[in-house]
Amino acid sequence: MASNYHYPFTHLTTLSFIFFSFLSITNFSLALTDAEASFIAQRQLLTLPENGDLPNDFEYEFDLVVTFANERLRKAYIALQALKDAIYSDPYNFTGNWVGANVCAYTGVFCAPALDDPKLSVVAGVDLNHADIAGHLPVELGLMTDVALFHLNSNRFCGIIPESFKRLKLMHEFDVSNNRFVGAFPKEF
After folding, report:
1. Worst-scoring range by mean pLDDT, 120-124, 145-149, 154-158, 164-168?
2. What's the average model confidence in pLDDT over 152-180?
3. Angstrom distance (rounded) from CA 121 to CA 48
4. What pLDDT does residue 132 have?
5. Is residue 179's pLDDT more than 80?
């Protein structure tokens, strides 16, 4: 039995107009307020070591008992979990699957053979462009020394680029444009 009820195109157009009119009337925006940006920056500054870099004997503590294919993937796990903890808002749940030891399966994380040892798989790229994520960059990201591509453009990250980024010697593409960062890049970077 066929249904005789159809949505005419004009009804859809009217509904769309009403929806978008509502958004413009309510001044709907996903942008951070100055107060939210200040809160995120303050949160980052409270987590930074004195010089903003990772100490040589740095060790991040985590309770999860997992094994990793190699030490570099373990460090990438530590860095990515620290980034996830530094996120204030992830409305599209980009980091929702960032659990467990298989960091190569995380959304926006790309692995490749290590340049100095093709038998090792390493995190070579992080791409979270246009994810609408709000947060700050933790110093632990300096542990991902194999990263060549780091894209975070068009998000709502605030604060500074940590000095630990100078450890990312293989960086080829670094795009953090269209965020709310302040301050200078690390000198060596």
Report:
1. 164-168
2. 92
3. 29
4. 95
5. yes
Beta bridge partners of 157: 135
Q: In what order do the strands lie in the sheet with 156-159?
A: 87-89, 134-135, 156-159, 180-181
Bridge-partner residues for 159, per DSSP? Answer: 181
DSSP secondary-structure letter at 9? H
Length of the chain counted residue by residue? 189
pLDDT average, residue stretch 16-25: 36
Structure tokens at 23: 């958004």
Q: Is-contact 168 145, C-beta < 8 A?
A: yes
Residue where the block lists tokens 């004997």: 57
CATH class of 67-181: alpha beta
How far is Cα 124 from Cα 110, in angstroms, rounded to an integer?
A: 6
Compute the half-sphere exposure of residue 113: CA atoms within 13 Å on the CB side of its CA: 5
Tens-digit pLDDT profile for residues 74-101? 999 999 999 999 999 999 999 999 999 9
Contact 157, 133 (CB under 8 A): yes
How would DSSP label each residue in 128-154? -TT---EE---GGGGG-TT--EEE--S
Is the CA virtual torsion 110, 116, 119, 120 positive or negative?
Answer: negative
For 125, phi then psi, to 5°, come to -155, 150
Q: Which of 117, 155, 131, 127 is nearest to 40 (CA)?
A: 155
115 token code pair: 């340049």
Say whether pLDDT at 65 is over 80: no
